[in-house]
Amino acid sequence: MSRRSLWLALLTAALLAALAAWFLRYFERVEIRIPATEDRAVRHDPWLFAREALGELGLRLREVPLTRLLRHPPPAGDVIVLDTDRPRQPDEARRLLAWVAAGGHLILRPPEPSREEDAAPPDDPLLDLLGLRVRFDPNITWPDEPAVWRVGGRALRLLFNAYYVLEGTRPGDRVIFDENGVHMIQRRHGRGLVTVLSDMQLWHNGDLADFAHADALWHLLTQRGRPGTVWLVTAHGMPPLWRLVWDGGRLALAALAVLLLAAGWRAAPRFGPLLPDAPPPRRALLEHIDAAGHWAWRQGQREALLAAERRAVLAAVARRHRQSPPADDPARRAWLAARLGLDAATVERLFFAPAPREPRAFTDHIRQLENLRNPS
User: Fold this and answer.
1) What pLDDT, on a 0 to 100 scale, did the predictor assign at position 131?
2) What is the pLDDT of residues 138-191, one digit of tens each?
3) Domains in the chain, please, with CATH?
4) How far is CA 243 from CA 246, 250, 258, in A?
5) Residue 229's closest CA among 104, 86, 135?
6) What is the per-residue pLDDT for 197?
């Protein structure tokens, strides 16, 4: 390490030590215990308490995606509650209102409007068909008394979010309001009923037990008789990705499909007469011999390969000299040395020693025997 690198490392270590000393002097580790007031189910399901309470009263509340209700509308005597999910296309809104006109009860809240002053109301095809809109007014003062819904001689006190008010009431609508504006509108639609609320926070887990919120929810759901099922539609039931892509980009998808078809037609081969299949290539005899030798070597049969080559050399020498080799090994060693002109050590290595284990040495051994079998 050079002197410059050493000084740089020492300076870096000194700076880190100073930073650590400063941190430990001005900061200390403190353990804070936060009480777990809500479990995971309560945090992720704002309608959990309402579902359990209604279930104990014999009313079934089921959570489903809106796309399923649009494909398979429930019986007209049921109730649909739209909380955080709503129709995105005018055709979907018309199908929902057609279900209401047949005798259903639709309860919904508008999408949350922008909190900027003079901002346009949010687009909502269902509210557009009903002629309603929601307005956010940050200058509104919180009312001294909650809104009151008079039901059968009872006054149900309901605390709505004061900053959200509904607009677009018509003669014949039933409304709930406070000093800041209207928070609920009920309107007949055909043989059914539509209820629009400025917000549904009062029926979520944290607010259900306040004032007369629970009583109001029960009365609203059973206002036209006890329904078979209450269908709750929330953002948990988002439509599938292909539906969102199709609803938001049909023209782009159509253009892409045309482009892909044109590209496929451009790249496709031109049709012509059918050509016969090419005959399979024929292997040469040497390729088969080479493949058989490689297979035998991989199977550990080098001794068998070498023994076959040695027998072929013996047979070739016997034919050339018109004399069969002796049967016993000592006499055969002398016979081979005399006929081939080799010394005893070479005869021993070529004809009687074990086969070499290395591929290069084995190949050289076979080459020497081939030279003896077919001398030039």
Assistant:
1) 92
2) 788 888 888 999 888 888 999 998 888 999 999 999 999 888 889 999 999 999
3) 40-237 (3.40.50), 285-373 (no CATH)
4) 5, 10, 20
5) 104
6) 94
